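Researcher: Go.
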Amino acid sequence: MRTEELKYSLMNLMHRKTRSMLTVLSIVIGMMAVFALVSFGLGIQRYVDELKNTAGADKLYVQAKGTGAPGTDLNFYISKDDANFIEKIKGVSEIVSMYAKPAEIFFKDQKRYTYLISMDPKKIDFIMETSNNIKVIKGRQLKNGDIDKAVIGYNFLFDNKVFKKALNLGDKILVNGKNFQIIGFVSEVGNPQDDAQIYITNEAFETLHPEYKDKFSYSIIKSEKGVDPQELADKITEKLRKFKNQKEGQEDFFVMTFADAIAIFGNIINIINSVLFLIAFVSVIVASVNIMNTMYTAVLERTQEIGVMKAIGARNSDIRTIFLFESGFLGMIGGILGVFLGYLVASTGGLIAASSGYASLRPIFPVTLILGCIFFAVLIGGLSGLFPAIQASKLKPVEALRYE
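Model: Structure:
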């Protein structure tokens, strides 16, 4: 594109600055929505990938059928005999069984509801490894003999997250009618439910709820090195079914690899992101229609100018280039501003999510996303101006000069 054509295009955009600004605004809104939503989607995908890497692809999960959240119905459980049998199956490296139950907790006359999780102190490292590598960040971890001690979630460290005031080491909380002393706080998981959980030993849980003894809510398995987790899941299902004398398809338990569980979560997130992206994409389509309308109007308003340019030697390609540049330039400006505002919106949304306990909802802004959105905006602008540009280039000089 020659310098004269560039100056002419920019001059025309400035001459019609109100219309140009409104056209750019429509692009900004669309690209802002796309950028913000995609950045959140990428952030969630990164969280899922991190979870997959930290929890490990060699883990499996065994739970009784017939219940949603573990521990909500005592009629459905994994027995100690089941767990001992699974541990002897070839390919199983390690197994840990845990109790879980909704809990009513009191602190200074304030009542809250959360989840009570038990741990085998001898297998703390394994449990932490499968729980997104959470660690004790204040105080100490549970050990054998801690029947009246508790390690609690990250959110208890802050005012107005769980209770009105933050809890401290040494404070006592009433859990399902029994006092427990706080000996530690674990690191942040990234969602309010997990970050408000109470952790006690298996022994303490059995003392608190003797009816649960040897009736575990779920078991976590680690496969031996080199063993395919999915093949091991199928083997465990088959052997445990025979051990429990149950027919195929009528098992009262299920075995799932962590990869499968994470994949299900990832698929749900992808569906949600796709729906949100489609909604944002509609605004981009509206913006493209607005650009096309602006360029068609510009062609009509500048018909005589086009005739003059052709009369003094401008080629059809020159006319097309001028109008394509104008529409593409509008798209580029809208894309840059949309990315900038999208960054502000996504960053603010991430901070709000984190302050609300959803630290896992963190947007990311890779260079490919920034450049991709700007390029997409330019492409949309160029395509939207294509037909008006072709129409302008096809105008005959004589007819254009006579146009009023």
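Model: The first strand starts at residue 59 and ends at 64.
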